[in-house]
Design brief:
This protein has a single domain, classed as Aminopeptidase. It has a five-stranded mixed sheet with strand order 1-2-3-4-5. The longest helix is centred in the middle third of the chain and has 16 residues. Strand 3 and strand 4 form a beta hairpin. It is globular and about 55 Å long. It contains five helices and five strands; from the N terminus they run E-H-H-E-E-E-H-E-H-H. The relative contact order is 0.13. It has 159 residues and is of the alpha+beta class.
Length: 159
């Protein structure tokens, strides 16, 4: 079956959420996803979208998504951050991830950004290999730092 790569749209929100939940299971964090379909619709396809995405469609089914947003680097300038590149498990190894990745990089190139960036789990060797073969550098000397909503609230309680 032919795979079509296209811009995501509001009606894709439920299937995008399913892919996000599938990724969370793969990344050993099945209970980490707290967003819902309405959140994806509002923040991805509402008046002031916070992200954009490309989806991979086969027939009526969404089998992959590349979700990204703009950032600004104080060193480089305009940047695109690839939040997630997801292909449903049963469709992996069929070139769908490569097509989504290429669509993301083409968009970045056309936008004229100075850099694209994303994170990858250190144990996801297949993804690391894929990215390195494309010319991307996996940095070992930078660490991702996060605070969830509760931690932010606690910060203000103790400061």
């Amino acid at each position: 079956m032919k795979t079509i790569i296209r811009k995501g749209k509001k009606t894709d929100a439920s299937e995008i959420l399913s892919l996000i939940k599938e990724l969370a299971v793969f990344e050993r964090a099945p209970n980490a996803v707290i967003i819902n379909r309405e959140s994806i619709e509002k923040f991805g396809f509402g008046r002031n979208p916070l992200f954009k995405c490309f989806v991979a469609q086969q027939g009526e089914k969404i089998v992959g998504v590349a979700l990204f947003y703009q950032r600004y680097s104080t060193w480089k300038g305009p940047t695109l951050h690839l939040e997630d590149l997801i292909v449903t498990e049963k469709m992996k190894g069929k070139g769908i991830g490569s097509k989504l990745y290429k669509a993301f990089l083409k968009y970045a190139h056309e936008l004229g950004v100075e850099r694209v960036e994303w994170t990858v789990l250190d144990w996801n060797l297949a993804a690391i290999d894929f990215y390195q073969k494309s010319g991307a550098k996996v940095l070992s000397d930078w660490r991702t730092v996060q605070m969830d909503k509760k931690t932010i609230q606690n910060y203000f309680k103790i400061s």
